[in-house]
Each structure stands twice: as structure tokens, then as C-alpha cells.
């Protein structure tokens, strides 16, 4: 079957069973580095409508983050009642995406680790980022400096809950194999000694593996290269309110151009649970490096 960078998957509700062929196609497309687009709205209750405001963000933050493991919320300014509403909405989003994942990606069952749930009410367009590294309007693959993943995949579920009819606009860049082939030869070598020191001094939450090192440098290398940013082929995508999109954001080159009011759930998936592990960033980079990276 031919696949587009953005592949529509006809799932319209969070609960109903998904046909086997559709699930197999969704998993194939996801692991091939497509963005899965689903006509799948996430409904807010009447009480939760008050959350559709960016005044609940604390200070200059762009996200409110929820930890499904201990039910805690960070980044929101507001009273206890608002916080209870946020917990309810984000907890339900977490549960909904998990239920959907287990139907669409059955082989991941028992292997998906919960990451954070986030709510992003602030407008992206016109924001001044803290630095070019934080500028998500530049194409990049996701990798985080303080939180090594040791080869695990970053699987993310997005939903546009914008009440004003505004889309969330993304650009999708070239396939991961092309990004890696282009940037890998210029990346600095991994230093195990430096990685140990960063873990000891708690700059990183655990030891940064060679894989984490190369992913982080890919992220930075892409964002720092303005010629690359302007010249590389991009596919624009506008995700309308009521759409869900699912992405391996460590693999799909992406940038966000505009939009406000979005929900996001992160999961960590071990490479061993993948249907097509050879397509993963870990295996692609290991091939280029000629050695194991975790
Ligand atoms: C990103 O991961 O680059 C941000 C995506 C978004 O906020 O839409
Ligand atoms: Fe990103």
C-alpha cells in the first residue's frame, strides 16, 4: 500500500473496536514515520470549558503538564477548583489515548510506559522562544537534554481542542533516514566520560547513552542549520479542531507554525516491542555508526 507523510486512519471514536486490517495498516504507517491523522474529537464537559483560556498558564510557561503516574499537575496558575478540572481533563485524555493505543497498536500492549500528558493553550505564532534550541517552529526530531531514553521510542498523541475553529499548523520534513544520512557525519562523538559526569551532577536524570547523544545533536543540528530549514522539502499540515494525530516524534521531522489549545500524551516504547525495529531511529543510527549505541 502506498503511504503519504500524513496518513488518514478512519477511527471516529475512542471506544469501538478497530478492524484488524486497519490496525495493521496504522501500525505499519506509524513505524514507517507517517503522521497518523484521525477524525477523532476529544470532548470536554460543560464544566471544563473554563479551561479553554491561556490565562491559566503560570508565568512564561507554554504547557501545563500532568503526570498520570501520580495524578499531579504542574504549570497552572489557578485555584484548587481549576486544578481539579485540569486533573480530570488530562487524566481522561491519558486514559482515552491509552485505550486507543491498545486497539490500534496491539503488539505494544504491556510495553508502553506512560510519559507526561500536556495541555498547550498558548498561541504558537509570534511567540519568542527562550533560544533557538527551544524554537519548535524549526524542523526537528524530538530529543530531550535532561531525560535520556536509552533507545526507547517517543510516541505522541495530539488533539486539537481549539474552540474557535483554528487549526494547528505543522510542517513535516524529510524521512528520518534522509535526516540521519545528512547530519550524522557532522555530529560530535559521544563521550562516555562526559555522560558519566552529567549523570553524577544530575544535569541528566540518568546516563546519556550514545543514542541519546546522537539524537540530541540531530535535534540541535537541524534547528541550528538555517539553510537546511529553508531548503528542505516540507509538507504543510493543518490539524483542525476535533482531529487527533499520532506520531513517533523522535522519527518524524516536524515543526509547529501556529495554533493554540492542544492536548498531548507521550508514551515510551521499547524498540523490542516494535513490529519493524529496523526502521527505528536507534537501528538507523546504529547502521550509520557501525556499532551498538545503547
Ligand atoms: C513539538 O513537539 O515540536 C511541538 C508540537 C506542537 O506543539 O504542536
Ligand atoms: Fe517536537
Spans of at least 5 consecutive residues with low confidence: none
Percent of residues in helices comes to: 25-40%
Provide the CATH architecture.
Sandwich
Bound molecules: succinic acid, fe (iii) ion
CATH topology name, in short, is Jelly Rolls
- State the order of secondary-structure elements, H for helix, E for strand: EHEEEHEEEHHHHEEEEH
Strand order of the largest sheet: 1-2-9-6-11-5-3-4
Strand content: 15-25%
Radius of gyration of CA atoms, rounded to a whole number: 19 Å
Q: Average pLDDT, to the nearest integer?
A: 95
CATH class: Mainly Beta
Structural class: alpha+beta
| Domain module count | 1
The span between the termini is 33 Å
Number of helices: 7
Shape: globular
Q: How would you sum up the major sheet?
A: 8 strands, mixed
**Could you give the count of β-strands?**
11
What's the arrangement of secondary structure elements?
Blueprint: E1 6-8, H1 20-31, E2 35-38, E3 64-67, E4 72-74, H2 80-104, E5 113-120, E6 153-160, E7 168-172, H3 176-183, H4 192-200, H5 210-224, H6 226-231, E8 235-239, E9 244-248, E10 254-258, E11 262-269, H7 281-289
Parallel strand pairs: 1-2
Antiparallel strand pairs: 2-9, 3-4, 3-5, 5-11, 6-9, 6-11, 7-8, 7-10
Helix pairs in contact: 3-7
Succinic acid (SIN) is lined by residues 120, 136, 142, 168, 249, 254, 256, 262.
Notes on the protein architecture:
The chain has 294 residues and is α+β, with helices and mostly antiparallel strands. The chain has one domain (6-281): Jelly Rolls, CATH 2.60.120. It contains seven helices and eleven strands. The protein has helices at 20-31, 80-104, 176-183, 192-200, 210-224, 226-231, 281-289, and strands at residues 6-8, 35-38, 64-67, 72-74, 113-120, 153-160, 168-172, 235-239, 244-248, 254-258, 262-269. The strands form two sheets. An eight-stranded mixed beta sheet has the order 1-2-9-6-11-5-3-4, with helices on one face. A hairpin with a 4-residue loop joins β3 (64-67) and β4. α3 packs parallel to α7 (281-289). Fe (iii) ion binds at residues 136, 140, 142, 249, 254.
Amino acid at each position: 500500500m502506498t503511504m503519504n507523510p500524513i496518513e488518514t486512519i478512519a477511527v471516529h471514536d475512542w471506544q469501538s473496536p478497530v478492524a484488524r486490517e486497519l490496525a495493521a495498516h496504522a501500525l505499519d504507517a506509524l513505524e514507517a514515520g507517517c503522521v497518523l491523522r484521525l477524525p477523532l474529537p476529544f470532548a470536554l464537559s460543560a464544566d471544563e470549558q473554563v479551561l479553554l483560556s491561556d490565562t491559566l498558564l503560570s508565568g512564561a510557561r507554554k504547557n501545563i503538564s500532568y503526570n498520570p503516574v501520580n495524578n499531579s499537575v504542574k504549570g497552572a496558575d489557578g485555584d484548587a477548583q481549576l486544578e481539579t478540572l485540569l486533573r480530570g481533563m488530562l487524566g481522561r485524555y491519558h486514559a482515552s489515548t491509552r485505550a486507543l493505543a491498545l486497539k490500534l497498536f496491539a503488539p505494544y500492549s504491556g510495553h508502553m510506559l506512560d510519559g507526561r500528558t500536556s495541555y498547550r493553550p498558548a498561541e504558537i505564532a509570534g511567540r519568542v522562544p527562550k533560544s533557538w534550541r527551544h524554537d519548535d517552529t524549526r524542523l526537528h526530531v524530538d530529543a530531550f537534554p535532561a531525560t535520556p531514553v536509552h533507545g526507547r521510542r517517543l510516541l505522541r498523541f495530539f488533539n486539537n481542542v481549539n474552540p474557535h475553529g483554528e487549526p494547528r499548523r505543522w510542517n513535516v520534513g524529510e524521512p528520518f533516514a534522509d535526516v540521519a544520512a545528512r547530519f550524522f557525519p557532522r555530529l560530535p562523538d559521544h563521550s562516555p566520560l562526559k555522560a558519566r559526569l552529567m549523570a553524577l551532577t544530575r544535569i541528566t536524570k540518568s546516563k546519556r547513552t550514545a543514542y541519546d547523544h546522537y539524537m540530541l545533536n540531530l535535534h540541535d543540528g537541524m534547528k541550528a542549520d538555517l539553510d537546511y530549514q529553508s531548503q528542505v522539502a516540507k509538507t504543510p499540515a493543518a490539524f483542525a479542531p476535533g482531529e487527533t494525530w499520532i506520531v513517533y516524534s523522535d522519527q518524524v521531522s516536524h515543526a509547529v507554525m501556529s495554533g493554540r489549545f492542544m492536548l498531548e500524551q507521550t508514551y515510551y516504547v521499547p524498540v523490542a516491542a516494535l513490529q519493524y525495529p529496523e526502521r527505528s531511529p536507534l537501528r538507523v543510527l546504529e547502521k550509520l555508526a557501525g556499532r551498538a549505541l545503547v
